[in-house]
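re: ur question from earlier - yeah i can do the single chain one, its not a big deal. heres the input i used so u can compare w yours
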Amino acid sequence: MPASRTVLLIVAAISFALIGVALYLQHAHDMLPCPLCVIQRYLFLAVGIASLVGAFAGKIKAGAGVALLAALGGLGVVGKHLYVLANPGFSCGIDPMETMLNKIPTATLMPWLFQADGLCENATDGLLGLSIPQWSAVWFVLLTLTLVWVLARRAR
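and the output i got, formated as tokens:
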């Protein structure tokens, strides 16, 4: 069994790698992120940062707890995104959420990472048989289960 600290470091690495994949798809394949995609990026980063801080600060349970909250938030956001894809008439489109997201300081300082430009209902391009929001759901589920496991196991 791996140590909880190691598991948190793996969770952080996966979260940051997923952001890397998102950036690759955005910049190399012109898959523009919609507002819900950008919120998912923030939540993947929150999972990664909380896991990293928890692992290095020795606060395994606290880091896993905060990361779990972010992962659960991600599940909620990706659930809405999948609903939008299943019901194309219901779009997040160009709305106040996009305008608000694009005015957050992180979006103005790092538009290449956090600027929302796409439509949520257009996120149907697939990768290995699943759409990007479906992959996001898979990863949020896996990260959530892993973090629950970290919280549920006894400290050594």
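The chain is about 70% helix and 5% strand. not sure if urs matches, ping me
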